[in-house]
Amino acid sequence: MKTLKEIPVGSTVKVVKLSGGGAVKRRIMDMGITKGTSIEVRKVAPLGDPIEVHVRNYELSLRKEDASMIEVE
Questions:
Q1: Which residues pair with 52 in a beta bridge?
Q2: CA-CA distance, 17 to 68, in Å (whole number)?
Q3: What pLDDT was estimated at residue 33?
Q4: What is the SS3 assignment for 68?
Q5: CA distance linking residue 67 with residue 65, whole number of Å
Q6: Cα–Cα distance for residue pair 64/53, rounded to 1 Å
Q7: What pLDDT is recorded for position 68?
Q8: Using H for helix, E for strand and C for coil, what is the string for 2-64?
Q9: Cβ count within 10 A of residue 61
Q10: pLDDT, tens digit, for every residue of 2-43?
């Protein structure tokens, strides 16, 4: 299974599972990222952090560590 961190810029993927727990998982879910959500990777900073994505008509920035907890297909 791939994580959001591994997806190339310009790709659109669907969330399969959120790994981890606690405050980090809650923060990801508060952004509107839940199972079945489509995410488009818009831009990745030169060093890979942050990753800018388009989710439910919103532009969001995710930390690389958070993106590694989002499993996609």
A1: 43, 61
A2: 11
A3: 92
A4: coil
A5: 5
A6: 12
A7: 92
A8: EEHHHCCCCCEEEEEEECCCHHHHHHHHHCCCCCCCEEEEEEECCCCCCEEEEECCEEEEECH
A9: 14
A10: 999 999 999 999 999 998 888 888 989 999 999 999 999 999
